[in-house]
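Exercise 7 asks you to align residues with tokens for two separate proteins.
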Amino acid sequence: MSEELLKAIVQLFAIVAKERITDEERANIKDFLSLHLNQEATRYYLTLFDEFCKANKRMVESNLNVDAETLEFVDDWSQIMQIAKKVNQSLTMQQKAVLAVKIIELCYADGELSERQSNLVYYIGEALKIPQRDIKAMRTFVQGQDIEELSSKNILVIDEGSGGADFPGPRITAKDLTGLIAILRMPDIETYLIKYLGITPLYLNSVPLKSRKIDVFATGSAIRGAKIDTIYYSDVVGKFLFEESETDISFIGEHIFYHFKSGKAGLQNINIAETGGKLIGLMGASGSGKSTLLNVLNGSEKPSSGRVLINGIDIHKEPHKVDGVIGFIPQDDLLMEDLSVFENLYYSARLCFGNYTEAQIKERVEKVLVNLGLSEIRDLKVGSPLHKTISGGQRKRLNIGLELLREPTILFVDEPTSGLSSRDSENIMDLLKELSLRGKLIFVVIHQPSSDIFKMFDTLIILDVGGFQIYYGNPTESVNYFQNIVNAANKIPGACPECGNINPEQVFNIIETRVVNEFGRFTHTRKVSPGQWYQYFKQKIKIPKVEEIKDPLPVVQQIPGWLAQLKVFVSRDVLAKLANKQYMVINLSLAPVLALFIAYFVKYYDAVSTDSPQYNFYHNTNIPVYFFMSVVVALFVGLIVSAEEIFRDRKILKRERYLNLSSSSYLVSKVFILFGLSAIQTIMFIVLGNLILEIPLTEMRYWLVLFSCSCFANMLGLNISSAFDSAVTIYILIPVLIIPQLLLSGVVISFDKFNPKVGTPNGIPLLGELMTSRWAFEALMVTQFKDNPFEKQFYPYDQQIAQAEFKRIYQIPALETRLAIVRNNRTRWRDKSDTNPVKKALELLRTEIGYELQRIGNDRFPELEQLQVGKFDSTTYARTDLFLKTLRQYYGIKLRKANERKDSLRARLTTGADAEEAYNKLRMQFANEKVTEMVENAADMNRILEWRGQLVQKYFPIYFNEHRPAHALDFNSNFYVPTKPMFGTTFDTLYFNITVIWLFTGILYITLYYRLLQRAISSVEVYRKYRKRDRD
């Protein structure tokens, strides 16, 4: 307090006491001043009090000839109002309540209350803004001298238990107590006052408790006496709360053991028994298992043995029965950094109260903002811990507010004061203490608390290294407990007898005391090991028994349906992304910047050999490169956008797990947003890239392929975001995932040039089939060639020409060569050995002719079954030779007719004024010679190969239409084929490949939903740890 304020208060005491000043009055005033001042300052203000009293006496004597009573009242009232104004601006309600009690006590010093003093008490209460019901309760408490006079529901009585059976307030029995102890509770300001009426020596926080004197019963206080059991602050508060509480809570942890996946013990035989309205502290050295215990108690981790019961429900066996009962506030932030304070609470409320209207949700959020003192910053963006827009204390309060919205009955808090100033720490703990006073059960893991915070706990649990429980009881008794065990010669009282402060560090200094060697230096060996402390704990401390409640706990929240959750997740995420300007700029500019860069550099035209160089699409040899880089960009951007999505939300998801929200609605919301963003990115890429390369914007088939590719990358990114615990690891993985897509796409290395152990000359190897880039690039190349407006007119004729030409020039001559091998080895026509070249040649002939007969009719060559060793003869040879020559003529006719039809179409298109120019313009605008060269495989000198008894067509794959699937699901075929076989029919390559990409995307969603990648990684880590342990 300031000097000016203290003078005003002393003057107020003088006004009340000026009728008569007794030694007892001076003693009361001295007691009050001693609460705030040292001895020297107390003497000074007592002297000042005497001076004020003398001045008041002189004033009364000087006004004897006038209406003294009136003048005195006016003067007193004027002074009271001036003093009250200063007091109201400086003191809290709790401090003003103590001041009012001391004034009332001063008035009753001589055992009676005059009319003037009664009026003064009334007007002082009004001036100090103290409700008259509280003033009346104070007067009753000060005046009462026995249990009948102290009869009130807000007064707790501690006595030996005889008499007063119909006492309306709570009661505690203390055998052998002479007299009684009364404790007044003022519920509006949650302040407790104590009064002792007796002769038994008692101590309040190690200070003698004087009879008939009123003291503040502060948080963490304890009443001790030689003949009574210690009565703690939590015992008193618990009695009041038990009377008020509408819901009873029993929380029991029995014989809890927990082992990590590596086999190391985390918790060893932990036992807890608590009821509602308690603030429980969990303390211990690093690695002692505090957070592990918290996670087991809140249901996040399942114990190896033992159980946790809430009102008789095993939370690990029947977790659905405690939905909404448990709340959890981890040490780290649970905030959406890009949303405002209000928006964080608003969206959390929408996920908790599906039965609320919009107005009710906003009303509830506003109430929490007011209660937490966050109204003034409601519209501020939360920001990250490194780039703060609100303070650390405000962030903690907001984190707590997220849980207060849904009012969980049991709350678990991990390190709520870490990184905060001492003032902010006390504010946070005051808030948690207030919640416990409302009947909640709160568990708090805390490290290095201050004395005031330490005394707030009703029960303290201390763990030692290895997960041993070594203390369970009242915090203020912990120091004495450990000192008594080690028989400390210089025992320090648990609490300072003068100020009441407790140093929690004393506890850990005793627990971790080291052995001193012969050189006087501390060793690494502890005097008392964790196991020994645990043995002392089992011998000296008994876990209290609590009645196991069977009543169901009320749940305020009502989770919205799946679709409603989806809407909330989508709107929350979209709003957060829109608020993050940097995120939006990077993600919306990335695709067009890459499109500009790639398209500009691949826009090739011959500027050397022509006099007037001019760009046209047809002669641009870099178009395949553009397609390939487009696929790479779609994959890369899709991964970049999604790689941190779930990882960033991991802490929020851990909290929302207690809400029992639908994981699929959350995942679908992420998919929906990412797919939407990918659609925008790929549209911008295609539009800008196509404009630069002069590709008509109507060619949106490109976008469909790239969008599908990007969606696949989104799902892949979400999987790694969900599976890995480090952002660095995630971003390192992106190039690791992209490189196989480059290498195994069939562009960098042709599929038939792969290592023979993994590659195949016929079709695409399995590794290639698993690459999205392969399906996307093939789709782009095939659709660009055969579906462009120019080639689309000629493609049916080109396909017939190409197939007929291939048959005449490559396939039939290859068959004639095999027939010549048979003819030249006439002596081995009966040799059935595997090394016989005749056998191999006949098998090839029979296979290939058989496929031809399926197309032209089996009756064209009845001797098919004669094409095998033992049955082949000269007649068969002659007829086979004739059949092949006839077949060559057949395809020659088809070739001529197809050419005629194509020439006829070309003639129609080029006949007329400017028709030739329009024809060439169409070709230059839509066709591309490099694409044609690649899809026709014109650069490969191996036009036909023999592979496993069949002839493989390597030339003209874009025109290939003679699929030979081994079964209904066999879709394997060469690169750039126009159609893919499946289920006995064929599908256009563009749409088949897009379907395959979406199939991959669907599979990745399944792995994401069931967290298969995360589980696989966990299994590998467990296996590695077991192997390491076995080696050790």
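Second protein for Exercise 7:
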Amino acid sequence: MDLDEAVDAVRERVSRWEHGGDRDAVTGPGVLAPAGRIWRTVLTGQGATVEAVYALAGLHWARTVALGQDGPIDDLWGALVLYGAVEGAESVRVPDEVRALLSRNPSNYDLSFVGPEHWGRRAAHLLREVQVDEDLDKLDEVIELFNGTVEAYTPDHEYWAGDLSNLSLALHMRYYRRGDPTDLDRAERAARDAVRGTEPWDPKLPLRLDNLSAVLQYRARFTGDAVAWAESVRLSARAVRSTPPEHHLRAMFEERLASARIGRYELTGDQGELDQGIEELERTVARTPENDRALATRRSRLGGAYHSRYLLTRDPRPLHRAIELLTQGADATPLRSPDRAASLAGLSKALLSRFEETGAVQDLDDALLAGERAVKEGPGEKAGTAGLARRADHLHTFGRALFAASEYAHDRSFLDRAVEAFREAARTGAASADLPGHPGAPAHLASLGEALMARNFGLLGQVTPFGLTDLVHETAQLEWERRKASGPVLDPAELEDVREAYECLLRAVEQTGPYHPDLGGRLRGLSSLSYSLYRLHGRRGDADRALELSERAVRVTPPRHPQRAHAVLLLAFLLAELGGAAETDRALSLWEGLVTDPSVQPSSRASAAAYAARARCRRGAWAAAVDLYAQALDVLPTLVTPAQDTRAQEELLTLWSGLAGEAASCAIAAGNPDRAVELLEQGRGVLWSQLLDSRTELDALQAVEAELAERLTVVERELNTSPEAGASEPWWGRIADGRLTLAAEREDLVAQIRTLTGFEDFRRPAGIEELRQAAADGPVVLVVSSQWRTDALIVTTSATRTVPLGVGHPELLARTQRYLTALQRYETGPRDALAQVTLNLIVTRTLEWLWRDIVEPPLRALELTTSPPDGAGLPRLWWCPTGLLALLPLHAAGIPESGAGTAVQAGECVQDLVTPSYTPTLRALLDSRAAARSSAPGDGMLVVGLPSTPGYGPLPQVEDELAALRAAFPTSTVLRGERATRQAVREGLRTHRWAHLSCHGGQDLTRPSQGGVVLHDAVLTVADLRSDHFAQGDFVFLSACQTALGGAGAPDEAMAVTSALQYTGWRQVVGTLWSVGATTAAEVTAGLYDALASGGTLDTGEAAQALYEAVRELRRAGHPPRVWAPFVHSGI
């Protein structure tokens, strides 16, 4: 602006005030810049004309009048100074009030109290205030004042560069709050001019470099400008180098540099930048005093950086640190601070990551709460451009938490809310039209597309890592095909959702830069949707598009990027699914490449190994497939750890259910039954094996490395306590869960121990020679079924034999589903005569089928086809069924008698040929046998009885059982009714050798860890028992319903109460598969204890025989299988 333009602008504003009363014309924004230009000529004497001085004097007088007595006095002084300088020239133009004041006080005024110098001092004072109170009106005044000063001073003036730098700071503060892009442009120009106007030796240069770096970071963050990130790193590094470590601004400069490095990492994926950023932030936080307002923000930023490190490395320790810092930062940030919403959003993201890592429901709840508060406390719907961009990001964060909640709870309402949150995020981001390159916009679109896909395609709209359980997957497949056969699969509203999903995912890809690290993930999302459309319509074009997009996703994802494995997995899956032999060859190459790459995440390695193994099996390459299956099973314990929530463990194991069975079937097909047994042991009972590991192998280690042994003992003891303990407090009142850190430390300790001589196989799966010892008292029959074949493996102390079975896997799935459905209907419905007849029909058919196709062939191979002569005991045999077979009553298989009262037909029922017992794994049987001991003085019986339980029906047989047990064990401990609390029973189980529980029981087939026995105040669940150790336990009778039934999702994990008690120390357990009648329970109890009890003690050496003799009495009495078949014996 030249002088003439400035004079004209000032005169025009004064005229509007004098003739129209427009007060804003002389006091509002934009007036001080032209005034400052005129002041420059006055202060320097460079061509200040009388007209220019009159114009400037008139402006100051007009401001004095307009502002009145409440206005600052500097305008009056300015008017007096300026009118005094030209009064003699044309005194008639001087207002009368001014002439009067000049006549009374003609002395000169100090120019430092008027005009630009005063503006600068006032602006600096207000700038300090606005950084605390965030008053936007005050911020506008700061900018107006500095607009005037930078026009008033020449570049060589001592104040010019400093005022420019302060103007830049104020402008980008206003941009942050209002989002006007012109403010950001002006801020950058002012900051650059300030740096150029500062001499290299000026001590204020670092501060001005930092200011320019801050402006560039704003531009980079909201526009995705990679060049701006790079320049910000360079400028901040220069500012840090130019500042001594003890300087009070050094921490601020280091924080800015760290922020630039982390932003650059987010754009480029350069881990070195992230690591340096974390180091610099750690130093910054360490030197920031506790009473410094910046500490909360710095902690939150450091927490966000640690979260980024976790996302890159999947090491849980940075995540623990991130949540701790973000919790502290969010709690300490003032409510009105614009940084609070960002802190809450960062906390929500980190909590969601930990939920995904551990399954801890409290973390999901807290992530939802923090995400919702970030939306409420952040910028509103009427915010400026940058504010809308931040609001969109907060909505997106909240949407991710809602989406996770929908998957966890299987609740459509959460998914609908997630769709709306993502949709609003996309709309809000689009409203900031001046920021088309805002990097969050594609993410919002991609998430909306993903949520819409999930809402309309369900299970079959997703490509899972390995596949769901066979039972669930088959059901979903049948439902999908049924809907396709009966007409349109999706209704018009659903089709509209699908169209919107495709449009969102396509736009997300189009708006993502060619080198953006998230491009590959967005291409994968579009590829998955194209594949789903192919499944929906059968159009080959959709299949080709899915392959093309997946190929591109692999090409654009760098080799070491954490998302590359997902891209390769999808491409390999599509090649094998949609292509021919050549494409399958390529898929195998891709899968096997992932398996051998140590940088690939364990879950992806396991998925790749399992998929490759399946492909090899389909080609008959059984031996090669065995190695691949083994590598997948090797990874499984690292995916399911004690650090995780019980439900998360169950869901992960459900996802991988059937893998061990497939591996064993493959080994059998390869002619290696011993290897099949080893693989079955390795891939089943994963959680229980970890529990047993923590209680064994430590004695030898203690003798060699006591310190390692003691630390491992402490760590595993803490890990094996209940994951939910103490997790009820909200995020702002508790320190983050340390279980992730403990789990990581456990891995480190085990790795150290394996480096010791003689401990190379510490905590590794047992070999066949050790496993065969489980058959010391009789053969163990493992029954395994998979898509490849169905076999029985007979394990003796000298060999493993394979007995092929004539049942296919689809038939097994169908029969198991019918059997479980009948059980559930019986347990949840009225148990009238019709229900009993229906259940008996299903049970009878199931027992007949089991006898014919599953049980009789291995018995024939063992030459156990006839009953022994009278007086001879039946031989022992242990069943170790796998997969869904673990849910079936193998111990009772046979051809039931034709009518009541008829003699038992020998040779047509398992229980007439052998004394059958169960063991969940060979190792469980080995451990139970190793812990066996003889009776000793002080051994006691715990008797628990609940004739009535709040919320449940009466159990009339309980009193009879209690009376019989008191008579047999006069010194027994009796917990009856209200005394039978969960805590009391757990303590009793720890201190007694024998136990009898007569109460209600139940099982949840979908969440078997929540099944258990119902006590007076709560259910004693499988999950509760996992954290106990009953070293003295010898025999326990569970006279309660469904205590021997595991879960349908992960049957190999033996999540039944009987198995839980065996794994936790009880050597023999009796339980039931379904509800039994009151009379039946009492009769079996009486028969068993009559055979075993004597003199107040219990001889459990023949417990299995005694149980089945009592059951045989029921059969002799003509009772149907529904009555006698549910009783099972587990253990030695």
